[in-house]
């Protein structure tokens, strides 16, 4: 009897979605799975965080401040390996990753929560945890959006880095 055929490719690797980064006290990581889930009574996001990262520790375990950033295609595509494939504690005990990010992109501190973010992010959303559910290798975090900022609609049109852009 021949072996069964392989399963089809996972559709979510072929459906374009925005690429986000979660900035916390001393780290930034790519977040592939994030989506707005409510407008009333509070604006809310669901964010899936890989459990073994500095960002997860800072935000979920310690409850520290976090800002979700929407990345730009024209200026952040070159940061994907650093943001998504490099552990914070693998470079200079943790400080090296943020130094490398600062060397490649302008950053600024949010007045609302003190988190360092990419200066030219398309949009930023300050988050506060409402609930956390373990979903395997990721935790799904439901967050209230406590503050946000974004460019105008014309600036944002076509400028978002999408998952299909980064492979």
What does this structure look like?
By secondary structure, the chain is α+β, with helices and mostly antiparallel strands. It has a single domain, classed as Electron Transport, Fmn-binding Protein, Chain A (Pnp Oxidase, Chain A, Roll), CATH 2.30.110. It has 6 helices and 9 strands; from the N terminus they run ββββαβαααββββαα. A 7-stranded antiparallel sheet has the order 2-1-5-8-9-4-3. It has a two-stranded antiparallel ribbon with strand order 6-7. Strand 3 (34-38) and strand 4 (44-50) form a beta hairpin. The longest helix has 10 residues, at 95-104. The radius of gyration is 16 Å and the shape is globular.
SSE arrangement:
Layout: E1 20-24, E2 27-31, E3 34-38, E4 44-50, H1 54-61, E5 66-70, H2 73-76, H3 80-85, H4 95-104, E6 107-109, E7 116-118, E8 123-134, E9 138-150, H5 153-156, H6 163-166
Antiparallel strand pairs: 1-2, 1-5, 3-4, 4-9, 5-8, 6-7, 8-9
Per CATH, what is the topology?
Pnp Oxidase, Chain A
From the N-terminal CA to the C-terminal CA, the straight-line distance is 36 Å
Helix content: 10-25%
Domain count: 1
The main pleated sheet reads as: 7 strands, antiparallel
Q: Beta fraction of the residues?
A: 25-35%
Any idea what the shape is? globular
Q: Total number of helical segments? A: 6
- Give the strand order, joined by hyphens, for the main sheet: 2-1-5-8-9-4-3
Instruction: Output mean pLDDT.
Output: 89
Structural class: alpha+beta
Kindly provide the name of the CATH class.
Answer: Mainly Beta
The total of beta strands comes to 9
Global Rg: 16 Å
H/E order of the elements? Answer: EEEEHEHHHEEEEHH
CATH-defined superfamily: Electron Transport, Fmn-binding Protein, Chain A
What CATH architecture label applies?
Roll
Uncertain stretches of 5 or more adjacent residues: none
């Amino acid at each position: 009897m021949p072996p069964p055929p392989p399963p089809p490719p996972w559709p979510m690797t072929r459906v374009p979605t925005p690429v986000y980064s979660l900035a916390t006290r001393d780290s930034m990581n790519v977040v592939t799975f994030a989506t707005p889930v409510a407008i009333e009574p509070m604006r809310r996001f669901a964010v899936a965080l890989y459990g073994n990262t500095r960002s997860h520790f800072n935000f979920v375990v310690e409850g520290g401040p976090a800002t979700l950033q929407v990345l730009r295609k024209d200026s952040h595509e070159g940061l994907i390996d650093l943001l998504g494939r490099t552990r914070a504690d693998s470079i200079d005990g943790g400080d090296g990753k943020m130094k490398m990010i600062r060397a490649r992109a302008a950053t600024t501190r949010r007045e609302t929560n003190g988190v360092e973010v990419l200066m030219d992010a398309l949009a930023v959303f300050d988050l506060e945890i409402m609930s956390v559910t373990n979903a395997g290798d990721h935790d799904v975090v439901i967050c209230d959006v406590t503050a946000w900022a974004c460019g105008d609609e014309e600036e944002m049109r076509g400028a978002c880095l999408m998952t299909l852009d980064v492979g």
